[in-house]
Amino acid sequence: MPNQNLAHFIKIAAICVLAAALNHLIFPVVVLGFRMPLFMDTVFTAAVTFYAGLIPGLAAALLTWVIGFTIKDGIINPFIICSIAEVILIFLLKPSDVRTRGLLSEEKKSFIFATTLASLMVLYITVCITISTLGGLIDYIFYTEFPNTKPDYSAEDAFKEWFSDSPIPMLILNILSRVPVNLVDRFIVIFGGYFISRGMVKMESKLFPKP
């Protein structure tokens, strides 16, 4: 039993490290390579949370932050709070883990698919609203109220520039500018992360079949 627990811990730890590394690799490939104005920095954190739960998800988020902190020579990224909030929401609202054996009827398969899709949609909308609001609030406090310089030009900055002459308060503008980005970005994160996690479950069942 102790050996099994140690092997499980090592497996989850390795998955968290790999997820953190892939979170940073996906940015230059998708965002810079394909010139998509998205964040795309938590897809594999979401996958780990769907697959292994809250603590591994938080570990993947923190490892991603640590790698980013190291790469950017100690520049603090306050948006780790958004990643933590996203992990918690995924853990609380993720679809039930349905692992059945044997053949299922078409009605049963349709029901499972429909309930899973509905759960993912609720999760997606909740994350989109929460991360847009929280991200806008952090941006306003960290880069408007305090004299910090934003290290990167991110997707929502383009939307803020379009409305720079409008009478909309900066806090509201920070939140609203994230909504169109997160509508696409969080869809990829939630649905992509979920299906990656399902692939991980299938791979695990093939590599380590249960009697």
Strand content: under 5%
How many structural domains can be distinguished in the coordinates? 1
Give the number of DSSP strands.
0
Largest sheet: none
- CATH topology assignment: Arp2/3 complex 21 kDa subunit ARPC3
Gap between N and C termini, in Å?
Answer: 17 Å
By secondary-structure content and strand pairing, the structural class works out as mainly alpha
Architecture per CATH nomenclature, i.e. the level-2 architecture: Orthogonal Bundle
Q: What's the CATH class label?
A: Mainly Alpha
Mean pLDDT: 86
Radius of gyration: 19 Å
**Uncertain stretches of 5 or more adjacent residues:** none
SS element count, helices? 8
Percentage of residues assigned to helices: over 70%
H-E string: HHHHHHHH
Global morphology: globular
In short:
With 211 residues, the protein is an all-alpha fold.
